[in-house]
Specification:
Blueprint lengths: L2 H43 L11 E7 L16 H19 L3 E5 L17 H16 L3 E8 L9 E5 L4 H16 L5 E6 L6 H4 L4 E9 L3 H8 L1 H22 L8 H32 L6
Parallel strand pairs: 1-2, 1-3, 3-6, 4-5
Antiparallel strand pairs: 4-6
Helix pairs in contact: 1-8, 2-7, 4-7
The protein binds zinc ion.
Length: 298
C-alpha cells in the first residue's frame, strides 16, 4: 500500500461528512425559503391582508340614467346620462388614486343598463330604479353615490345639491366635505343637502348603504354646462368629490371602528394560523429529506 493511497483513504470520511452536511443544509434552507417566498407572494396577492393597517371600505358609484333613458338634455345637446357616466367613472378613479384600499364598484361603466329590458318592461323608469337598487343592495357596499344633473325652466338656476336619508349622518357629513372641497376649487354654488323625508327617492330610500344622490349642476344653464363639459374642470370636480369620501372614510372606516372589524380580525387570525402550518410543513419536509439522505458512516 503506497503512502499516497493511505492518505486518500484517511481523508475520505471527512469529505463525505462535509458534503453530507452541505447537502442537508441546502435542502433545509432551499425548502424553507421556497415556502416563505410562497407566503410572501400570497400576502401580496391578497388585498385583504392590508386591511388591518389601513382604511378599507367599499363604495358603489351609480351613473344616473343610461340605456333608453337619457335623462335631461343639456344646452349643448349632450345628455345627462353621458355627463353622469363621465363623472361617475372620474370620481371612482380619483377615489382609488387617493386610497387604493377603498374598493370602488359601479352600477354601469358604459351606456348599458342590463337590469332592465326595454322590450318587456311596462314601466321602464320604475323597473330601471328597482333593478339598479337591487344591484346596489346585492353588492353590499358601505356607501352609494348616485350621480345626476338638474334641469329647470329658469335657465339661470345653478349649483349643486344632494339628497340623503334623514337619519344618515355619514352621508350628511360627506356632503359637507364635498361642498367644502368644491368651494375650494371655485365650482358653482352650494344649494345644500336635503332629506328624502320630504322628497323620497328610490335610489336613496330603497338601498341599504349610506346613500347620496348628488345633482352636480344644471343642464339648463349654459355657463354651467360649459364648465361641466370642460375636461380640466371635470377632473377637479371629480377629485373634490372623491376627497370628500376619502376624508370621511379615513376617519371612520379604520380597523378599530370598521363595521366588519370582527370579520377582519378572524381572517387575520386564520392567516397567521395558515402561515404557522406552512412553516411546520416546511420543517417536516426538511427533516424527512435529511433522513432520506444516506448518512456518512465510515
Ligand atoms: Zn337625473
Amino acid at each position: 500500500m503506497s503512502t499516497k493511497r493511505k492518505k486518500k483513504r484517511q481523508l475520505r470520511p471527512w469529505v463525505k461528512i462535509t458534503l453530507s452536511i452541505i447537502v442537508i443544509l441546502l435542502v433545509v434552507f432551499g425548502l424553507k425559503s421556497c415556502f416563505f417566498d410562497q407566503e410572501k407572494r400570497q400576502a401580496k396577492a391578497d388585498p385583504d391582508q392590508e386591511v388591518m393597517t389601513t382604511a378599507k371600505s367599499k363604495i358603489i358609484i351609480d351613473a344616473g340614467h343610461g340605456g333608453m333613458d337619457g335623462g335631461a338634455i343639456s344646452t349643448i345637446q349632450k345628455t345627462e346620462k353621458e355627463f353622469a357616466l363621465e363623472y361617475a367613472l372620474g370620481i371612482g378613479e380619483e377615489i382609488q388614486k387617493l386610497d387604493p384600499n377603498i374598493e370602488v364598484l359601479y352600477t354601469r361603466v358604459n351606456d348599458e343598463t342590463p337590469w332592465v329590458d326595454p322590450y318587456t318592461s311596462l314601466n321602464y323608469e320604475y323597473d330601471d330604479l328597482i333593478g339598479r337598487a337591487n344591484l346596489v343592495n346585492e353588492k353590499d357596499p358601505y356607501y352609494l353615490l348616485s350621480v345626476h344633473f338638474n334641469s329647470r325652466e329658469d335657465v339661470n338656476e345653478s349649483g349643486f345639491e344632494a339628497y340623503v336619508r334623514g337619519d344618515d349622518a355619514a352621508s350628511d357629513q360627506i356632503y359637507q366635505n364635498i361642498a367644502k372641497n368644491l368651494k375650494e376649487i371655485g365650482y358653482s354654488k352650494d344649494r345644500g343637502v336635503f332629506s328624502t323625508e320630504t322628497y323620497p327617492l328610490h335610489m336613496v330610500d330603497m338601498t341599504t348603504p349610506s346613500a347620496m344622490l348628488i345633482e352636480l349642476g344644471f343642464m339648463t344653464n349654459e355657463q354651467e354646462v360649459k364648465t361641466l363639459n370642460s375636461p380640466q374642470m371635470r377632473a377637479k370636480i371629480c377629485k373634490a368629490i372623491a376627497k370628500g369620501y376619502v376624508e370621511y372614510i379615513k376617519d371612520h372606516d379604520n380597523p378599530d371602528t370598521n363595521p366588519q372589524k370582527e370579520k377582519l380580525k378572524k381572517r387575520a387570525e386564520e392567516d397567521a394560523k395558515k402561515q404557522e402550518e406552512a412553516q411546520k410543513a416546511a420543517e417536516q419536509a426538511a427533516q424527512q429529506a435529511a433522513q432520506a439522505n444516506p448518512q456518512p458512516v465510515q
